[in-house]
Amino acid sequence: MPWYAIHWLLPQTLRSFHYDNQWALWLIPLSVSLFVFRGILGRRYHQQLRVSMAGIVGPRPDIWMRVVSTLRFLLPLSVWLSFSFLLIALARPQIVRQLREEQSDGIDIVLALDISSSMTETDLRPNRLAAARQVAQAFVNGRRNDRIGLVVFAGEAYSLCPLTTDYTLLLQYIRELNPNMIRTTGTAIGDALARSINRLRDSPAKSKVLILLSDGDNTAGNLDPLTVARLAQNFGVKIYTIAVGKRTRLADTLGIATQFDEGILKTIASVGQGGFFRANDAGQLRQVFARIDKLERAPVRVQTYEDIQDQYRPYIYWGISFLLVALFLKNTVLGNSLED
């Protein structure tokens, strides 16, 4: 961009810079007070010769005098602008771009979320799926250096998002989860485990974690959950299961069948060398994720590089340009007229 572009004078451009010598900027408002002080002293002590312009510039000399008096401010204004731009250049405006390189032994995590119709039960408010979705979002927001993937399942299992550090994209997927995404009814926990392990088995990460959120009601699929959990050991994948939902006392008393089975989730977690958690409300769900986050955190090494580009040259050119304008005006009628 050329130095004479108006872009360099825009307030948003000046605010976007990092100034290495910020003290120089404080001299700009100070210079205003010096010009004001000089003007006051000049009016008080400067000798002037009053000359009648009648008959020289026409019948209305007052208009000419007013125009000339106004234009005479161009000289001190040009000097002040030149001084200000040179001070901006002295402040060393810079564009600083930080390049952050994070090296981590890292964790690869796959979230397997049950979106079957049983997850619409309202024993967790507003329902099981909404509670699990909210906490999954909080969990993703709490990670900084880990790749996270997403598998959803009902009667079938699908890999919705591969392992990624694009948490914005991942959160968008989680927000859009609903039971209508998979038309096949049932809950295929075994298939979901297989899909998740398939994502993790070739991962170079030292820590590989599978987090299964479900009500444990395994009613569909072609694979046995326990068999798949045993295969996870061969790939170094730890399985954590979270029972989303709760059995009410009223249901137990009346013998009402509810779609909730935490027994299989306990067995899967035991075989998968992870842990089982019971989430009776959204608050406990958050505690579950906090515990997993604490157990599986890996060390991170961060290196920060700064790309610094100095942008003082355009302001030097602007300062010199206004200085030349001031020197030109000094040798015109605007700089010498009506003086002694």
TrEMBL record:
Pfam families with a match to the protein in the record: VWA
Positions of transmembrane segments: 23-41, 73-91
Keywords associated with the record: Cell membrane, Membrane, Transmembrane, Transmembrane helix
Domain of life: Bacteria
InterPro entries attached to this UniProt entry: UPF0353/GerABKA_families (IPR050768), vWA_BatA_type (IPR033881), VWF_A (IPR002035), vWFA_dom_sf (IPR036465)
SUPFAM superfamilies: vWA-like
Keyword Membrane: yes
Protein name: VWA domain-containing protein
Source organism (scientific name): Fibrella forsythiae
